[in-house]
């Protein structure tokens, strides 16, 4: 039984948790990062060279925190910031200043070929337009060499509500999504590109009077194999 949410509903829940409950945003980001690091370390991926792609919003903040945690575990990780770092949100800038102290390698170009695993933390539920041309090209190149990708919250380029692709989208082996399963991960191309989707609780709270607009998704047939 999975409650599905739209991107907007997830953002409302995020904001309620931070603004009303008073949960610090950096705590949510750290818990999101730890949730992804758990999946990275679960033994299904070659961690010889992990490449984290981080964007300029909170999805990117998750990515920078993930790079820091992997580095602290002694994993060979490099961080590529995607976008104009001057336009990055404060949450990302805080993570970038913390990671400076750890000495994590920052890679400017996409060294996809050396990477054995890509962590996609470019865009999440805040995607609100088609991706910029340059990023579309990068994503198509990454999909072409078929490196395993773990998507943070939503595969970059997938609309978390409609499941449509906004110009181009990374194909994920696994998507670690926070709080609730975004409906865009279950339908149209989004359902295919998200790969195995794991929902992880990061401590978000739902207002008592919150009205979900979507039904609770019955478990898929395979999950009901006993019937
Ligand atoms: N909130 C929380 O507490 C928690 C959030 N969490 C994480 O935050 C993620 C949501 O973060 P987010 O809202 O910052 O949006 P995100 O997806 O990072 O996009 C970044 C910015 O990019 C921009 N942009 C959008 N589309 C664009 C395009 N096509 N081309 C170019 N630019 C584009 C747009 O900026 P704008 O254009 O609106 O100025 C947008 O703001 C969520 O998925 C989860 O991973 C977790 O840590 C748990 C706690
Ligand atoms: K992402």
From TrEMBL:
InterPro entries: YjeF_N_dom, YjeF_N_dom_sf. HAMAP family: NADHX_epimerase. SUPFAM superfamilies: YjeF N-terminal domain-like (SSF64153). Binds 1 potassium ion per subunit. (6S)-NADPHX binds at residues 58-62, 124-130, 153. Belongs to the NnrE/AIBP family. This is NAD(P)H-hydrate epimerase. The keyword Ubl conjugation does not apply. GO terms for biological process: deadenylation-independent decapping of nuclear-transcribed mRNA; P-body assembly. Gene3D superfamilies: YjeF N-terminal domain. It comes from the Bacteria. PANTHER family: ENHANCER OF MRNA-DECAPPING PROTEIN 3. Residues 10-210 form the YjeF N-terminal domain. It catalyses: (6R)-NADHX = (6S)-NADHX; (6R)-NADPHX = (6S)-NADPHX. GO terms for molecular function: metal ion binding; mRNA binding; NAD(P)HX epimerase activity; nucleotide binding. K(+) binds at residues 59, 120, 156. GO terms for cellular component: P-body. The gene is nnrE. Transmembrane segments: none annotated. Its cofactor is K(+). Catalyzes the epimerization of the S- and R-forms of NAD(P)HX, a damaged form of NAD(P)H that is a result of enzymatic or heat-dependent hydration. This is a prerequisite for the S-specific NAD(P)H-hydrate dehydratase to allow the repair of both epimers of NAD(P)HX. Its EC number is 5.1.99.6. It is an enzyme of class 5 (isomerase). Keywords: Isomerase, Metal-binding, NAD, NADP, Nucleotide-binding, Potassium.
């Amino acid at each position: 039984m999975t409650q599905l949410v739209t991107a907007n509903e997830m953002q409302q829940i995020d904001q309620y948790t931070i603004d009303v409950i008073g949960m610090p945003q950096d705590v949510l980001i750290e818990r999101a990062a730890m949730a992804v690091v758990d999946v990275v370390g679960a033994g299904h991926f070659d961690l010889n060279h992990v490449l984290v792609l981080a964007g300029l919003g909170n999805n990117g903040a998750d990515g920078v925190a993930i790079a820091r945690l992997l580095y602290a575990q002694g994993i060979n990780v490099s961080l590529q910031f995607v976008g104009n770092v001057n336009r990055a949100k404060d949450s990302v800038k805080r993570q970038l200043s913390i990671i400076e102290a750890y000495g994590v390698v920052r890679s400017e170009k996409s060294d996809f070929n050396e990477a054995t695993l890509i962590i996609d933390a470019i865009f999440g539920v805040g995607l609100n337009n088609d991706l910029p041309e340059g990023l579309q090209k990068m994503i198509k190149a990454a999909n072409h060499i078929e490196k395993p990708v773990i998507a943070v919250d939503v595969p970059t380029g997938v609309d978390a509500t409609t499941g449509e692709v906004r110009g181009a989208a990374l194909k994920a082996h696994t998507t670690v999504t926070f709080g609730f399963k975004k409906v865009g991960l279950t339908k149209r191309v989004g359902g295919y590109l998200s790969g195995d989707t794991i929902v992880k609780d990061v401590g978000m709270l739902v207002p008592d009077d919150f009205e979900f607009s979507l039904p609770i998704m019955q478990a898929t047939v395979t999950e009901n194999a006993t019937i």
